[in-house]
Amino acid sequence: MAKHTATAVGWGHHHFQKRWLLALLLMLSLSTIIAFLIRAAFDPCDRNIPADSGIVTARHAIQVAHKRASQIAAADPSPLLFMKSKVVLLVSHELSLSGGPLLLMELAFLLRGVGAEVFWITITKPSETDEVIYSLEHKMLDRGVQVLPAKGKEAIDTALKADLVVLNTAVAGKWLDAVLKEDVHRILPNVLWWIHEMRGHYFKLDYVKHLPFVAGAMIDSHVTAEYWRNRTRERLKIKMPETYVVHLGNSKELMQVAEDNVAKRVLREHVRESLGVHTEDVLFALINSVSRGKGQDLFLRSFYEALQLIKEKKMKVPPLHAVIVGSDMSAQTKFETELRDYVMQKKIQDRVHFVNKTLTVAPYLAAIDVLVQNSQARGECFGRITIEAMAFQLPVLGTAAGGTTEIVVNGTTGLLHPVGKEGVTPLAKNIVKLATHVERRLTIGKRGYERVKERFLEKHMAERIAGVLKEVLSKSKDKPRGHLF
Ligand SMILES: *[C@@H]1O[C@H](CO)[C@@H](O)[C@H](O)[C@H]1NC(C)=O
Ligand SMILES: *[C@@H]1O[C@H](CO)[C@@H](O)[C@H](O)[C@H]1NC(C)=O
Ligand SMILES: *[C@@H]1O[C@H](CO)[C@@H](O)[C@H](O)[C@H]1NC(C)=O
């Protein structure tokens, strides 16, 4: 990246803003999607600009934050140090820029960071070359992760010699029989199964029949673990192995942006301008893939009801806006059409905005005032966007379901409402509450941030994972391999 020699930056100055915005967006898109992959691309400290020179630029601020983060990292030994020189095989059902694989990659780099020998297998790959897979594999190779073909002698040999095999998501279970065949039972005592889902179709014996015999299962929330216990027992008549709940944490890169007021302000102005939302307007967002399960339809109903309430009671509040981030108009689903029809029918087009799905959520988190987490039925398995929003000091209006109930403290870091139609009016009232009580809104946001700093950072996740790995390793040591049956 070219060195910039700005000596003064006026933020009202359009040219500067544009230029820095470009640099920022570039960095952000990288830093929030695959940031941990490109750490090396950043110059961690820019010695030409002393931190106290009074020159504040977004890039500089980010560099300072990086420097600080790396100093902290150096002073703070990883809880995973005991994994040094251990052989770890990570088995991913796919390789893409989606939650599951990216999380496993974060683990790969944490383990590489402490000197573990890390191997990676992707079970399902498209036959033609895929740019995303190619680039992710190369990032891994650059960081010393050894990428193996899913099948064949090398895969089997590595699985047999590994101190630990991590299977990522329920579907990864297919790989065990397909590849390991008669060796499968020698490997099970060293398998840790990381599960991130709770939809019915994962409860297939085909996927999970070996689950009772692995060293442990690691699940993102207590409710999800409970659900797996129930369903495996009642539907499949199998018993869960030792199960560990590991709440996720925010990446260092997300935290750096969240704690960078200058970067946030630039992003806020830019995104609001692009949506046509004024500085003083109150912006509510639902950031999730658009589908009935994520509850965008019910959110819009609540939002409309909130607008009606404000009008009826002649409340003095700035204009309210809603943004739905996660649309996929190329898919043109019935549900997408239904949402847009509703907006037209209620004539709230100027208040509701649709944004295509994106992996770069930071600009939206910087731009909004409240995150709505409206996932229905059993809710989110964890819902990483919730802790990401809290890092940006945003209050959360969430359904009282799934992982959300373990993240959001009702009344303190957010307000919960019931799932389903019963939740529409409570959510509408909560929307009005946060729109009218600015102080309360800001306080709730701050408390959310404090909660993230206490328990939802990468280092907390690493500590929790370290605890699990220690137990799993000590257990598999006690069990001589191949004597299980
Ligand atoms: C699990 O089953 C118990 C008893 O059948 C029930 O009370 C509980 O709500 C269930 N939990 C989940 C998450 O399904
Ligand atoms: C959103 O996606 C649609 C369909 O893929 C595309 O036509 C449109 O240009 C996209 N909008 C933006 C702002 O990128
Ligand atoms: C959240 O708190 C509000 C206000 O105290 C209460 O009315 C509501 O029932 C609570 N919801 C849940 C799910 O705890």
Automatic annotation (TrEMBL):
Pfam families (UniProt xref): Glyco_trans_4_5, Glycos_transf_1
Transmembrane segment boundaries: 20-42
Cross-referenced InterPro entries: Glyco_trans_1 (IPR001296), Glyco_trans_4_5 (IPR041693)
Statement: the UniProt record of this protein carries the keyword Signal: no
UniProt keyword list: Glycosyltransferase, Membrane, Transferase, Transmembrane, Transmembrane helix
GO molecular function, one term: glycosyltransferase activity
CDD domains assigned to the protein according to its UniProt record, in alphabetical order: GT4_PimA-like
Domain Glycosyl transferase family, first and last residues per copy: 270-450
Presence of the UniProt keyword Ubl conjugation in the record: no
PANTHER family assigned: GLYCOSYL TRANSFERASE FAMILY 1 DOMAIN-CONTAINING PROTEIN, GLYCOSYLTRANSFERASE
Protein name (database record): Glycosyl transferase, family 1
